[in-house]
Specification:
alpha+beta; 10% strand; glycoprotein; elongated; 46 helices; HMGCR/SNAP/NPC1-like_SSD; disulfide bond; four-stranded antiparallel β-sheet; 30 strands; transmembrane
Length: 1273
């Protein structure tokens, strides 16, 4: 029993004692429910203009009815019964002023702002203050009251964490950063619930007039119960009807984070690159079939078989043989004969009437070349690389016409050879912060000296002085005329004094430039840092300096580790104002001159201006003039000397053809000038590519034809009773069809290349096609007449050049040239030996390799290649890719016609509360979450969302004079200024209809200030194209940035992804939206260049096939072999491009089109010579064709070009070295190898059978003549 009673007593005590404790605490709390302060007293020492609250420990007091509306506005949802509070109207007004910036940035998310207001309303006015507040420091005032200097504020951890979680994702649209970065005193990623509240209550933040010490706990502490009011998550709506926060401001409302699609795996078979494996297998199969076919043919030939010429060769009188030629063969022979007769007659006429022909040619050339007076040379890169009808060009024109052209820039990237880093230890605690050498104060002073020197530069334009202020971008002009300078020195107001500003005493430094820098990189739009310096971070031009634009070489967001400073001077660009544009160009020129002469041992400066690239390309072109002249001089000298066939030393000056060679060169150049002149008459502009490449191309084509005519004449024997004009006419009848075949094929191929969308390719193709055809016409007319005159000179033993002098008559033995004898007696017989001909497998192997790497040729143009080796811009490009962390701005442009005044139109675009989850801003925001895939780096700046925040009645931003309706800036103190919208439920909604347009112009003209950070003038003045007379909103843009882009593939991918995103937005909105960035016009060509290359070259090959088929006398197989060989050369060129790191772009595409043309020269003459040969077998026909045409092709193209090409290797221009020296060399070597080795061997295997009609006609023509004896011999 005793034990039971003892246990019962203990159990009651266990129940009673906790209950007693709770009742006691409740009794204490009830007694303690009194105020800590009431009303305002003395001026704050820390924050001038703000006051301390008066110490008061009595019960709460009724609020003056004048403050009811203000209380409802600031603290909605709180019912304090009879409105008995611990604050008066003055304190409510102070609270409202203090919360203006948080209101403007956080009210985008109603739950976030509600929780924040909860925190401050309880602090300021709660009738139960003493439950969670404790005043700890006081001082007396002159008016017998006591100031509260410090309070402790007990806050529940649950509340603080919930408040932070609701606000952590809220965006600041104009700054492309999270709002907490502007309100937490540090970077958003380093902000948390604790340090955010500590910062807001810190007396050093420039806003808090007295110290508030937050103490975080969820259980009672020292007799105080922490404030743990109800909070709302950002996914929840409020009781007043406000909806949940948008996805952009609340990650939890978004659902799962978007996941980029996986990269397509490389195409492999058994772990080996598929193309490589397929081509190896194909090549092995070819070898198997080829070896089998060769062995089979060898065994078959052991038996006696009849030659393909049997019916002809077995006859002693071919004229009596009736050949059963096919209809196609007969038609081909007749066409061939018609060409022969036509050209023979024309050649004879030209030799008989040289004066008429030459004079007529000169008149026509002079008339055509007269167009050069109207010549325009395009150096504008946009005109050069972007078609006016292309998507990027049209979008650029749309952007420029609605928002003005993209600004010009002058930029410095500054590093230091010093390697010392130093540690900054904050006085008020916190971990040590390492600083890079470039952020040393002495270095910063030297950089500031440089920056100020640049600001002071004075250029001269047409006798007028031009300074930076005359041309710079000043977004707040005329209220603030300071130039935009994106520089870390703008954190210090571009002032040596501010940079040296220090707060401390004799023992410690409390704050200096280190602490200011660390604050500003986390809150660049701040007007007052939280350190004891209280210096602004906002730049002198009125806008923020984002650290990712002004610093380089840091890791993640540790800006203190930066190894480079980036200073950017944005300059105004002018669309149709040559005078102001001229001033900008003059200042840029002065800037470049100054920077080239700048020297500081502690600074390494890479620099560039907007005009730099164009200037350097011009300089490059001028510096390469010498190289080009030497290259052409070598070719001219070779041509002049090689044309002559010297039989003996005595007749050197008689047999040489220097004057004829010079005349031939002048004809080539005349054809170029005629082509340029004719197109200039029609206003077609020239490009540097045309000027640099076309003479090379026409020289190759034209000189080849000259060698063919002259060498055929030199090898020919004049028949009995045949006069000179008849001989040259007969020779022209033999060779002109071949010349016509090659020239006309090239002309048609080039003109088809003009269908390209790329201006550079189209212009080149037009000029080249016409130049080649004019060259052919001049060669079969003017040159033939000159050849006749030269032949007469030679037969009269007159000296070349000095034609009045004459050698005594003497009999000289006529000998063939060394090169002709080499081809006829050594090279051709050797190549076509039975055991040598399988060399064809090497060419097929090379082709297989080239096909396997075609898809691996890099697309694009490394901008570094466009600069000379010694250009200062190269160092700039190198530093750009090494140090910069942000790419170019990208604008998502909503075209004119969207209705922003309707809720539906607003929801389709905006990113705040109530906006569609697939709105424009939300989709770009979603893309920024996977920036590695989309290349979109940040949330877009949204004028519409900032406008909604700016126009809210709770904000002090939107006010107007009651009498006149004129706009009142938030900084204006005038009782006549009233809020734009009433503090009513409807007034708190977004403006619609007429209200929307009424206040929008005010927003776009409002400069941001301390009381209103949302003014739209600085950020959005150019982003909204307002229609005249307030008729509505036209085109608008939403800006963000690309991720850092270093190589051509990065730029191409960025363009592609931005367009995909813009197309998705267009489909969602039902209204046209496009993405625009400054580089799109240059890189758009690469989206389709692979297809364009295939189409251009395919069309050229098709044209060559058709022309060849007709002009070879309807021999389809011969035309097919020509096209096949040229296709092989082109594919092998792509293989060389991969091996030699030559990317595919407009320049290389021009070269490939030219390669197609030159390849015709290498192939068509050989094939035609094969088709008209009357030898008994394919091998012999191929040998004869190679012997007769090979030497002319080799000397006319290969040797002519080789010397000139080698000189290009000495060029300073990297473009010349890569795209001209390497590609031209490859074109000549591959063309010679295929035309002089592969094609004859291929013809010996599978060349077309003899055209019986042609053979019969040839035998008939030659019957009974000396030519028959020679042919039989």
């Amino acid at each position: 029993e005793e034990t039971k009673r003892s246990l019962k007593a203990h159990s009651w005590r266990g129940v009673y004692e906790p209950l007693h404790t709770q009742l006691l605490v409740l009794h204490i709390n009830v007694e303690a429910q009194h105020c800590v302060w009431y009303g305002e007293c003395g001026e704050s020492e820390k924050v001038p203009g703000k006051k301390y609250n008066c110490n008061y420990t009595g019960p709460s007091l009724p609020l003056d009815p004048k403050g009811y509306d203000l209380l409802t506005e600031l603290c909605p949802g709180y019912d304090y019964g009879e409105r008995r509070l611990c604050c008066d109207v003055n304190q409510l007004n102070t609270l409202k002023g203090s919360l203006q910036l948080p209101l403007q940035f956080l009210s985008r998310c109603p739950a976030c702002f509600f929780n924040l207001m909860n925190l401050f309303c309880e602090l300021t006015c709660s009738p139960h203050q003493s439950r969670f507040m404790n005043a700890t420091k006081f001082n007396a005032t002159k008016i017998n009251s006591t100031n509260v200097l410090e309070v402790e504020y007990y806050i529940g951890k649950n509340f603080s964490n919930a408040m932070y979680n609701a606000c952590m994702d809220v965006q600041a649209p104009s700054s492309n950063v999270k709002a907490l970065a502007l309100l937490c005193g540090k970077d958003a990623k380093d902000c948390n619930a604790t340090n955010w509240i500590q910062y807001m209550f810190n007396i050093n933040n420039g806003q808090t007039p007295f110290s508030i010490i937050p103490i975080f706990s969820d259980v009672p502490v020292s007799g105080h119960t922490p404030m743990n009011n109800k909070t709302y998550a950002c996914t929840e709506g409020l009781e007043d009807g406000s909806g949940p926060c948008s996805c952009q401001d609340c990650a939890k409302a978004c659902g799962p984070k978007p996941v980029p699609p996986p990269l397509p795996p490389p195409w492999t078979i058994l772990g080996i690159d598929a193309m490589t494996l397929i081509m190896w297998i194909s090549y092995a199969a070819f070898l198997f079939i080829f070896i089998g076919a060769v062995l089979g043919a060898w065994c078959y030939r052991k038996r006696t078989i009849m030659s393909e010429y049997g019916p002809i060769l077995d006859s002693n009188n071919p004229l009596s043989i009736n050949i059963n030629a096919s209809c196609c063969e007969t038609l081909g022979e007749r066409f061939e004969n018609a060409l022969r007769v036509l050209f023979s007659s024309w050649g004879s006429f030209c030799v008989r009437r040289p004066t008429l022909v030459i004079l007529g040619s000169l008149i026509l050339v002079a008339a055509s070349s007269g167009g050069l007076f109207f010549m325009r040379i395009t150096t504008d890169p946009v005109e050069l690389w972007s078609s006016p009808s292309s998507q990027a060009r049209q979008e650029k024109d749309y952007f420029d016409s609605h928002f003005g052209p993209f600004f010009r820039t002058a930029q410095l990237i500054i590093t230091t050879p010093l390697t010392d880093t130093f540690i900054y230890s904050p006085y008020f605690g916190g971990s040590d912060v390492p600083f890079g050498a470039i952020l040393d104060k002495d270095i910063l002073h030297q950089v500031l000296d440089l920056q100020l020197s640049i600001e002071g530069l004075i250029a001269t334009y047409e006798g007028q002085s031009v300074t930076l202020k005359d041309i710079c971008l000043a977004p707040l002009a005329p209220f603030n005329n300071n130039c935009t300078i994106l520089s870390v020195l703008n954190y210090f107001q571009n002032s040596h004094a501010v940079l040296d500003h220090v707060v401390g005493d004799d023992f410690y430094v409390y704050a200096d430039y280190h602490s200011h820098f660390l604050y500003c990189v986390s809150a660049p739009a701040s007007l007052n840092d939280t350190t004891m310096l209280h210096d602004p971070c906002l730049g002198t031009y009125g806008g923020p300096i984002f650290p990712w634009l002004a610093l380089g070489g840091y890791d993640e967001t540790n800006y203190n580790n930066a190894t480079a400073l980036v200073i950017t001077f944005p300059l105004n660009n002018y669309l149709n104002d040559s005078v102001r544009l001229g001033k900008a160009l003059a200042w840029e020129q002065e800037f470049i001159k100054f920077m080239k002469n700048f020297n500081n041992p502690n600074l390494t400066v890479a620099f560039s201006a907007e005009r730099s690239i164009e200037d350097e390309i011009d300089r490059e072109s001028n510096s390469d003039v010498g190289t080009i002249v030497i290259s052409y001089a070598i070719m001219f000298i070779y041509i002049s000397l090689a044309l002559g066939h010297i039989n003996s030393c005595r007749r050197v000056m008689v047999d040489s053809k220097i004057s004829l060679g010079i005349a031939g060169i002048l004809i080539v150049l005349s054809s170029v000038s005629s082509s340029l002149g004719l197109f200039s008459y029609f206003g077609v502009p020239l490009t540097l590519i045309v000027i640099e490449v076309i003479p090379f191309l026409v020289l190759a084509v034209g000189v080849d034809n000259i060698f063919i005519i002259v060498q055929t004449y030199q090898r020919d024997e004049r028949m009995p009773q045949e006069e000179l004009h008849q001989q040259i006419g007969r020779i022209l009848g033999d060779v002109a069809p071949s010349m016509f075949l090659s020239s006309f094929s090239e002309t048609v191929a080039f003109f088809l290349g003009a269908l390209s969308n790329m201006p550079a390719v189209r212009t080149f193709s037009l000029f080249a096609g016409l130049a080649v055809f004019i060259d052919f016409l001049l060669q079969i007319s003017c040159f033939v007449s000159l050849l006749g005159l030269d032949a007469q000179r030679q037969e009269g033993n007159r000296l070349d050049i000095f034609c009045c002098a004459k050698l005594p008559d003497g009999q000289e033995e006529k000998k063939d040239s060394f090169l002709f004898q080499f081809f006829r007696k050594i090279f051709a017989p050797f190549l076509l030996k039975e055991w040598v001909r399988p060399i064809i497998v090497i060419f097929v192997g090379i082709l297989s390799f080239s096909i396997s790497v075609v898809n691996k040729v890099e697309i694009g143009l490394d901008q570094k290649l466009s600069m000379p080796d010694d250009s200062y811009v190269l160092e700039y490009f190198k530093n750009l890719s090494m140090y910069l962390h942000t790419g170019a701005p990208v604008y998502f442009v909503v075209e004119d016609g969207h209705n922003y005044s309707s809720p539906e139109g607003q929801n389709a675009v905006c990113g705040g509360v109530g906006c569609n989850n697939d709105s424009l801003v939300q989709q770009v925001y979603g893309a920024s979450l996977i920036s590695d895939y989309t290349t979109v780096a940040f949330t877009p700046s949204s004028w519409l969302d900032d406008y909604f925040d700016w126009v809210k009645p709770q904000s002090s931003c939107c006010r107007y004079l009651n009498a006149s309706g004129d706009f009142c800036n938030a900084s204006v103190v005038n009782p006549s200024c009233v809020h734009c919208r009433p503090m009513t439920p409807s007034g708190k909604q977004r403006p619609e209809g007429d209200d929307f347009m009424r206040f929008l112009p005010m927003f776009l003209s409002d400069n941001p200030n301390v009381k209103c950070g949302k003014g739209g003038h600085a950020a959005y003045a150019t982003a909204v194209d307002l229609r005249p007379k307030g008729a509505g909103v036209g085109a608008t843009y939403f800006m963000t940035y690309h991720t850092i882009l270093k190589e051509s593939p990065d730029y191409i991918e960025a363009l592609k992804m931005a367009r995909i995103l813009a197309d998705n937005i267009t489909q969602t909105m039902g209204h046209k939206v496009f993405a625009y960035s400054i580089f799109y016009v240059f890189y758009e060509q690469y989206l389709t260049i692979a297809r364009d290359t295939a189409v251009n070259l395919g069309a050229s090959l098709a044209a060559i096939f058709l022309v060849s088929a007709v002009l070879l006398g309807f021999e389809l197989w011969s035309a097919a072999l020509v096209s096949l060989t040229i296709a092989m050369i082109l594919v092998n060129m792509l293989g060389v491009m991969w091996l030699w790191s030559i990317s595919l772009n407009a320049i290389s595409l021009v070269n490939l089109v030219m390669c197609c043309g030159i390849s015709v020269e290498f192939c068509s003459h050989i094939v035609r010579a094969f088709s008209v040969s009357v030898k008994p077998s394919r091998a012999e026909r191929a040998e004869e064709a190679l012997a007769h045409m090979g030497s002319s092709v080799f000397s006319g193209i290969t040797l002519t070009k080789f010397g000139g090409i080698l000189i290009l290797a000495l060029s300073k221009s990297q473009i010349f070295q890569v795209f001209y020296f390497r590609m031209f060399l490859a074109i000549v070597l591959l063309g010679a190898a295929h035309g002089l080795v592969f094609l004859p061997v291929l013809l010996s295997y599978i060349g077309p059978s003899v055209n019986k009609a042609k053979v019969f006609a040839a035998n008939k023509r030659n019957a009974g003549t000396e030519r028959e004896r020679l042919l039989n011999y």
